[in-house]
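Last lecture ended with a question: if I hand you only a sequence, what can you say about the shape of the protein? Today we answer it with a concrete record. The protein is Zinc ribbon domain-containing protein YjdM. Below, first the input exactly as provided, then the predicted structure, then a couple of comments.
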Amino acid sequence: MTENLPPCPECSSAYTYEMGALLVCPECGHEWSPASAEDAGSGADGGVIRDAVGNVLADGDTVTVVKTLKVKGSPSGIKAGTKVRNIRLVNGVDGHDIDCKIDGFGPMQLKSSVVKKA
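The predicted structure:
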């Protein structure tokens, strides 16, 4: 490998290779163009957190839970349709990137994949 190719934007694998005009990751199968890799490297979309339908989330947004979530120690859990106000975006553990306070449950962290912007 004499060339210095960027890592895969999906899985961060260092084993990318060129196939025609595309870059390919052998580990996850993701294909992308080198031009899009340069755009992503500039920080234009780095660190953006999106909800379950692709809307960009920001601190202070109100979101709605899209599926019923089990909560340890609670018999009912968080029901789908529950509104969560004034979220905070964080770098959490296991993909939990929303810090919030839910009425009846208290402070907790949620994954952005289980909420949508209200």
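Comments.
1. Strands lie at 17-19, 22-24, 31-32, 63-65, 83-84, 88-89, 98-102, 106-110, 115-117.
2. The first strand starts at residue 17 and ends at 19.
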